[in-house]
Amino acid sequence: MSRPSKPRPGGGRGPKGRRKRPDAKAPSLTVQVSIDKLGAQGDGLAKASILSRPQTLYIAGALPGEVVLAQTVSKRGDGLVAQLIEVQQASPLRKEPGCPHFNTCGGCALQHLELNAYAAFKRDRVVQALVQRGFQNPPVTEPILTGEGTRRRVIFTAQKRGKLVLFGYNAHASHDIVAVNRCPLLVDSLNALIEPLNQALNSILKDGERTRVHVTACENGADVMIEGSETPGLAAREALATFVQSTDAVRVSWKEDGQNPEPIAQESPPMIYLSGVPVELPPGAFLQASVEGEHAIRDAVLAGIGPKAGRVADLYCGLGSFSIPLAQQVIVDAVDATEAPVKALERAAGRAGLGGRVKAQVRDLDRQPFDGKELAKFDAVVFDPPRSGAAEQVSRLAGADVDRVVGVSCNPATFARDARILVDGGYELLSVQPIDQFTYSPHVELVAHFSR
C-alpha cells in the first residue's frame, strides 16, 4: 500500500514525483566516465577523481557499461550529481524512450532501459535490501510489471504565470514545471482531464500561485483534490462546479494546509470496486496506483493466507483491498489509524452482506500495536504499513504464536528490517513477490509470505 507517506506521483521520487534535492553546489567540471551500475534511484553510478579526490557521480539517464560525458552540478550526500551531456558509447540495454518529456520530466528514471534489464533492476532492489539484513539467497521471485497506461491516480503540479498556467510535473531535481498534455503512464480518463483542469485553474489561481492537484480515476468518474493556501471564494467555487458539470469528474475537494479536504462540488460520491464490492472513496483517501497492481497484491496476499485460516487480522487495512476479499472466506479484524477509510470499509462490507465478517476499528498500530494476547486469536496476520514500516507491530508479532504472516510493503529497506525481526523471532521467509506499479521509477512494492 502507498499511503501519503509513501512514494506517490508528485511527491518523493514516485512515477511522477521528483528526486531528492541535491545538497549543495559543487565545482562545475566536465568529465568522461564509465558507468559501473545503476543506483537505488535509477541513476548511473561512476567513479571519478574530482579535484584530486575520488568521488561517486550520480548521472541520471546513464546506463551500466556506457561511456558518457557529464558535467558536475551539485553535491549529493558523499558524492556529486552530474548532468549527462553525451553518451559516447551506448549500452546494448538502452532503448528509445517513448515520451518526449523523458529528458526533462522528473518522473520517469528508467524509460530508456530495456524491459528485461528493467525487471532485473526491480528484483535486485528487493534482493539487495534483504542481503543487507543478512538474508542469504532470499527467495525473491520475478517481478510483476503493470506497464504503461495503468496509473489511475496522479499528482500534478500547477502554477499561474501571467495569463497562462503551467500544468504538469516537476522537472528532474528541480521545482520547475514541465508542462504536459499527455502522460503515457496514465489511464485515458486522466489524460482527458489535463486540459480542462488547466483551464479551470487558470480562472482560480492568482499570478505566481502554485498548487498540487490530486486526481484519481474511479469507476463513475474522476475524484479531484486541489491543495490551496486559503479557502476558495465564491468565484472559485463556481468555476469548480462548472468543471465538474462539464467533465468526467464527479467530485472536486479543496485541501488547506493542516486541514481535512473540503468537498467543493460533487455530482455523486466517487466509487471504486474492491473485489467486486463498491466502496465510496473518501476525499484524500489512499488507493492503490493501478487496478492491475491492486489485483496482483491482493492475489499474492490471499495465496499467503491459504485456505485453512479461520480468522485473520488485516493491519493498516485502508479501504479494505484485502479485508473485503478475505471476508468472503474468513472472519477479518480490519485496523487502521485513519477513521474515514475504516468507516468507508464498514459501510461497503455492510452493503455487500459482509458486515458480520468484517470487524473494523480505528487504532494507531505504531503507538498501540496488537500485543501477543490479542494476536493469539488469529490464524494469520496481514500487515501493510506506510513507508516507515511496522517495527513496533512486527516486534509483537515475532513473539506471538501466529502460524502465517503476510507482509506488504512499498519500501524494500524497511521491509527487510521488519523481515529480519520476524525471522529472528522464529518465522521462515517463504517467498517475496515484487510488484511494479510505479512504472519507470526506482520504486517497487512487494508481498512476502512467512510461516512458523
Key features?
disordered N terminus, 8-stranded mixed sheet, OB fold (Dihydrolipoamide Acetyltransferase, E2P), 452 residues, globular, 3 domains, 10 helices, Rossmann fold, 7-stranded mixed sheet, alpha/beta
Explain this structure to me?
This protein is of the alpha/beta class and 452 residues long. The protein folds into 3 domains: 24-105, Nucleic acid-binding proteins (OB fold (Dihydrolipoamide Acetyltransferase, E2P)), CATH 2.40.50; 119-147 and 289-451, Rossmann fold, CATH 3.40.50; 153-273, OB fold (Dihydrolipoamide Acetyltransferase, E2P) (Beta Barrel). The chain is built from 10 helices and 24 strands. The protein has helices spanning 115-131, 188-191, 194-202, 234-246, 291-305, 323-327, 339-351, 372-375, 391-398, 412-424; strands at 24-25, 30-34, 37-38, 44-50, 53-59, 67-76, 79-89, 144-145, 153-161, 164-170, 177-179, 210-218, 221-228, 249-256, 262-266, 271-274, 277-280, 311-315, 331-336, 358-362, 380-383, 404-409, 428-436, 445-451. The strands form 4 sheets. The chain has an 8-stranded mixed sheet with strand order 8-23-24-22-21-18-19-20, sandwiched between helices. Strands 1, 2, 3, 4, 5, 6 and 7 form a 7-stranded mixed sheet that branches. It has a 7-stranded mixed sheet with strand order 11-10-9-12-13-14-15. A hairpin with a 2-residue loop joins strand 9 and strand 10 (164-170). Helix 1 crosses helix 10 and helix 9 (391-398) packs parallel to helix 10 (412-424). It is globular.
